[in-house]
């Protein structure tokens, strides 16, 4: 049966991955997509990571991981993974959309931090 898995040391190309691992990776990637839509971020990240353990070349799983990480607030890690994806497809609209989400979340976090720390140094001001 074609259900054996290959050792990670032997995997250099996608052709080195068994058909079973490819199929399982696709299933977990699809589960991650569902979890992202359901806003179950932790589970989405978990499914995407499992998909990538089975097939590190699964770009859809990597993209789902980026989506989950953005929702989770792990913007630096999401940005780094997005950089990897953009190397192969620099003009992909979905990647640009996720890049815009990262920028918006960073701007939102910066504004929140400014608001929270805004009056921190106003020492003796009293009304």
Automatic annotation (TrEMBL):
One of its GO terms (cellular component) is cytosol. Residues 104-127 are annotated as: Disordered. InterPro entries: FKBP4/5/8-like, TPR-like_helical_dom_sf. GO terms for molecular function: protein folding chaperone. GO terms for biological process: negative regulation of apoptotic process. It comes from the Eukaryota. This is TPR-like protein. The lineage of its organism: Eukaryota, Fungi, Fungi incertae sedis, Zoopagomycota, Kickxellomycotina.
């Amino acid at each position: 049966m074609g259900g054996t898995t290959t050792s990670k040391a032997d995997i250099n190309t996608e052709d080195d991955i068994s058909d079973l691992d490819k199929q399982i990776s696709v299933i977990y990637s699809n589960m991650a997509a569902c979890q992202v839509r359901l806003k179950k971020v932790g589970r989405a990240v978990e499914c995407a990571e499992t998909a990538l353990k089975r097939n590190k070349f699964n770009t859809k799983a990597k993209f789902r991981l980026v989506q989950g990480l953005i929702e989770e607030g792990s913007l630096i890690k999401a940005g780094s993974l997005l950089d990897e994806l953009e190397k192969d497809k620099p003009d992909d609209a979905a990647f640009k959309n996720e890049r815009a989400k990262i920028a918006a979340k960073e701007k939102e976090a910066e504004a929140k931090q400014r608001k929270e720390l805004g009056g921190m140094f106003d020492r003796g001001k009293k009304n």
